[in-house]
Design goal:
This protein has 315 residues and is mainly α. Helix content is 56%, strand content 12%. The protein is elongated, with a radius of gyration of 41 Å. The two termini are 81 Å apart.
Length: 315
């Protein structure tokens, strides 16, 4: 691995440094003995020859270690080059897609670069609009609105790249109030970016409570959802008579079926216990069916009964 090669290279470099120190020491000993020999201070020829032989051996070891370090360095550099090339090749579709979405959101002279984080992760580095005279800034230095627009571009680009890998060529993407800080001048561009993504297999679901603000780029088909309990039943917002919500159809059917099983009439308490509902759920369904004319509540009585038309239909 690249990390192991680098570690080996550092170990060899330390070994070379150590061998170099030994060489210097041997040179000093050789010179000292040679000086003694020349001065006639003793017959040290044998020591000189031995040290010269050791010096020659150390030089050979030093040369081999140096060649090993150079080879490992060359291999490490080549592995780093290949790793960078492969990473760039893998990221090329993503960075190109981000560039296209940024061109829609900021203008054609916009680009983004990624940087390596500790642990191997990649993250946004610079958003570069120098070609348009607007400079290059790190993602964290952008305004809140600009960060949201860049973040949207990255998410749409990721979904587009992933969509191409799916069997059906489609990838859903949920945007939950993702553009609340985008300034009003740039807000229409969000619609262009989303439209651009839908042409590339991305199914965008936008969840927002700011429908008036985002209406400038909402899709042709808009579904307004209300957060209600799945069993809830209530009156319409217009003040008209209560109507069953679509998700309460099962409750209405169960209510009528229980009433039919009781002979078309039953006390409120007995029917509620038969259904096993709480008071709020029971009253909501009863009031809605009463408003629709499916049941009636005799005056002064704590019971409910099917209307004649509903009773005939049940029969």
């Amino acid at each position: 691995s690249l990390a192991r090669k680098r570690q080996d290279r550092e170990t060899l470099a330390k070994a070379i440094q150590s061998v170099g120190g030994m060489l210097e020491r041997d040179r000093g000993d050789s010179q000292r003995l040679q000086g003694q020999l020349d001065a006639g201070q003793g017959d040290v020829q044998e020591d000189v020859e031995r040290l010269e032989e050791e010096l020659s051996l150390e030089k050979a070891l030093h040369q081999r270690a140096w060649l090993r370090v150079q080879g490992d360095k060359l291999l490490a550099d080549k592995l780093t080059e290949l790793q960078t090339e492969q990473q760039d090749r893998r990221e090329a579709p993503l960075t190109e897609a981000i560039r296209r979405y940024l061109a829609t959101g900021f203008g054609a002279a916009s680009s983004v670069s990624l940087e390596q984080q500790k642990g191997g992760a990649r993250s946004l580095a610079l958003v570069d609009r120098s070609a348009a005279g607007l400079g290059a800034f790190r993602f964290s230095e952008l305004s809140h609105g600009a960060r949201e627009l860049v973040g949207l571009a990255v998410r749409l680009a990721m979904a587009e790249v992933m969509a191409k890998e799916q069997p059906d060529g489609c990838m859903p993407l949920v945007l939950d109030d993702a553009v609340t800080n985008v300034d009003s001048e740039r807000l229409p561009r969000v619609g262009y970016m989303i439209g651009q993504a839908t042409q590339s297999g991305v199914q965008v679901v936008l969840a927002t409570c700011e429908t008036k603000r985002t209406s400038v780029f909402l899709a042709e088909h808009v579904h307004l959802l209300e957060r209600v309990d799945h069993r809830s039943v209530g009156a319409s917002d217009t003040g008209d008579a209560p109507v069953l919500r679509q998700d309460a159809g099962d409750d209405a059917g169960a209510f009528v079926a229980a009433l039919v099983a009781s002979g078309g009439q039953a006390s409120t308490r007995a029917l509620r216990e038969q259904l096993g509902w709480d008071t709020g759920r029971f009253d909501a369904v009863r009031d809605a069916l009463d408003a629709q004319g499916a049941i009636r509540r005799p005056e002064g009585s704590r019971s409910v009964e099917l209307t004649d038309a509903r009773r005939a239909s049940a029969d």
